[in-house]
Amino acid sequence: MSYIQTTNVAPMTEEVILEGCLRNNPNAQRELYNQYSPKMLAVCYRYAHNREDAEDMLQEGFIKVFLQLRTFENRGSFEGWIRKIIVHTCINILKKNRKFNESVDLIHASSVQIREESVPAVVQVKQIVESIRSLPIGYRTVLNLFAIEGYSHREISQLLDIEESTSRSQFTRAKSMLEDLLIKKNILQPKQKTDWLQAVGQH
Predict the structure, then answer these.
(1) Of 26, 59, 94, which closes a domain?
(2) Half-sphere exposure of residue 144, counting CA atoms within 13 Å on the CB side?
(3) Is 125 exposed, middle or buried (0-12, 13-18, 19+ CB in 10 A)?
(4) 3-state DSSP call for residue 194?
(5) How many domains does the chain have?
(6) pLDDT in tens, 88-103
């Protein structure tokens, strides 16, 4: 049995990782995956049905990351570029799911009262993410894309092959349903207003 000798080696810089990956260097590829996979798994988990599905999304997403590395033009954040590929991978996988396609094609919502509550502590972000995952698959996908990833309803309509008005109504319903759920769990307190969803997108 062989053992790998560990040494205190400084982590590779982003530039070194990129150069190494473009040369198909296994160490650079491993470093890229190790640095970014934990955050990207959290992204996948918000879209997936369970952890196993999230890990499958992650693996497929990183295959695309490595295949498309030469298209990265150093404009903006490298992590943001990776995240965009991961999100698109999640969406493409979801679109193959019949239940997902049925859930994003619902009748447009009528006017729904939206409450803006507050999250008492960031420690409850995990509970919020779990609550988001309990929403119907279409609702949680649109809510993730709009409120957390920052996509516009026009972009979402193109991603999901739905009408822009459907994206808006899905988000309205999702946010209302989520807020009701969080209030019942005593995670949100009524009559306190803040943009509480921003806290989720940073985890």
Answers:
(1) 94
(2) 30
(3) middle
(4) coil
(5) 2
(6) 999 999 888 766 655 5
